[in-house]
Amino acid sequence: DADVTQTPRNRITKTGKRIMLECSQTKGHDRMYWYRQDPGLGLRLIYYSFDVKDINKGEISDGYSVSRQAQAKFSLSLESAIPNQTALYFCATSPAGGLQGEQFFGPGTRLTVL
Amino acid sequence: AQRVTQPEKLLSVFKGAPVELKCNYSYSGSPELFWYVQYSRQRLQLLLRHISRESIKGFTADLNKGETSFHLKKPFAQEEDSAMYYCALSNQGGKLIFGQGTELSVKP
């Protein structure tokens, strides 16, 4: 089955460390997104990419960077992790020209920054 | 500003009772609104979209432009409806803006 996968699923790290979260998809979708989920705040968009050469900042991009290595891969990096980046991170995809608003989510990566 | 507000963090009802999860939005154009659901240990997934006017798993949601609301309703809640529900708005740029989420707990 076509899928969206995220690695790692869980990660504990220390303040100041560089962390990369990876997202891969076999759905053949052009569009990919990174969100973070915090209790009481819902999902907030960090970065998104509508194709391999397109990268856009979302609502809360400070402290994060991304790389779209291929249509199927979209990585999120925390250059110097800080404790308030502790959260659940989701990758999502959607097809260009698909039904507006339908995104397909990965299982999430739980990141803890000590 | 584009915003989605879900005023209830937690909604607890008994099985068989009616359920209404509230969602209000702020958007200057013609909104496209959605409800996403996240069951325990499952991925976030689309439940329904306003434009389809569909009923999914007994849930319906009507867009009320006058009240800028898109409340999710079900006449008789089931235990398997227990989950986290997110209201979302799609802007013309193809992005989703999510509300804060409401956790629905259906008790036996």
Looking at how many chains there are and whether they match, the oligomeric state comes to: heterodimer
Largest interface: A-B, 24 and 22 residues
Q: Using the CA coordinates, give the radius of gyration of chain A.
A: 13 Å
The count of β-strands of chain B is 11
Number of helices of chain B: 0
Secondary structural class of chain B: mainly beta
3D shape of chain A: globular
Order of helices and strands of chain A: EEEEEEEEEEE
Helix content percent band of chain B: under 10%
Give the terminus-to-terminus CA distance of chain B: 41 Å
Average pLDDT confidence of chain A is 93
Structure report:
The complex is a heterodimer of chains A (114) and B (108). Chain A has 114 residues and is mainly beta. Helix content of chain A is 0%, strand content 57%. Chain A is built from no helices and 11 strands. In chain A, strands 2, 4, 5, 6, 9, 10 and 11 form a 7-stranded mixed β-sheet that branches. In chain A, strand 4 and strand 5 form a beta hairpin. Chain B is built from no helices and 11 strands. Chain B has strands at residues 3-5, 10-14, 19-21, 24-26, 32-38, 45-49, 60-61, 72-74, 83-90, 96-98, 102-107. In chain B, strands 2, 5, 6, 9, 10 and 11 form a 6-stranded mixed β-sheet that branches. Chain B has a 3-stranded antiparallel β-sheet with strand order 3-8-7, with no helix packed on it. Chain B has a two-stranded antiparallel sheet with strand order 1-4. In chain B, a hairpin with a 6-residue loop joins strand 5 (32-38) and strand 6 (45-49). Classes of the chains: A mainly beta (114), B mainly beta (108). The interface between A and B is medium-sized, with 24 and 22 residues.
Keywords:
heterodimer, A: 114 residues, mainly beta, 7-stranded mixed beta sheet, 4-stranded antiparallel beta sheet, B: 108 residues, 6-stranded mixed beta sheet, 3-stranded antiparallel beta sheet, 11 strands, 0% helix, globular
